[in-house]
Predict the 3D structure of the following.
Amino acid sequence: EADIYQTPRYLVIGTGKKITLECSQTMGHDKMYWYQQDPGMELHLIHYSYGVNSTEKGDLSSESTVSRIRTEHFPLTLESARPSHTSQYLCASSEAGAGANVLTFGAGSRLTVL
Amino acid sequence: QQQVKQSPQSLIVQKGGISIINCAYENTAFDYFPWYQQFPGKGPALLIAIRPDVSEKKEGRFTISFNKSAKQFSLHIMDSQPGDSATYFCAASLFGYQLTFGKGTKLSVIP
């Protein structure tokens, strides 16, 4: 049973559209993350949050933005999607402190931009 | 600059055989080395992890071997089963900080 939920699982949209990928977790974790995953490539951290009202950019530059208004919710938004944004986006969460390295991942949102 | 290098990219093993996946890291300050397992259509899940104060950790059929001087660590899957077919990611981090992942190894265990 998943404790971290991502919607939509699959999305096909046209260039220029605004999209929001939703991520919610029920574990009360302080830290949340967004990773971008392409086939044959490592997971790239694009955004993370240490808690409510905290957001930071990750190692991989991304045109997306995130918000953390509630502990359990960490949506990712693309204001104007382009074909280069086609990828799988994985949301994850972890405890703070000693548990920070144990990530729980969602099933992912696969985005295709035509 | 890739801080964690993983090999091979893909691996085919017969049922009952031993699967071995290797990773090398560059940052000697890393002190936490997990392996994640990802099945198709699912997110990665933590499989097993090790800290550099031990050279080996075993959980069931899965073993991590760690060589601090060589800056390498590996995952061994004994008695590999078709249900082990998945993509495996090694990772490394400073304790409490963000993980750096390898590129992944797609394992196929054939009957």
Q: What stands out?
A: Chain A has one domain: 4-113. Chain A is about 0% helix and 45% strand. Chain A touches chain B at residues 4, 33, 40-43, 45, 48, 58-59, 90, 92, 97-98, 100-108 (CB under 8 Å).
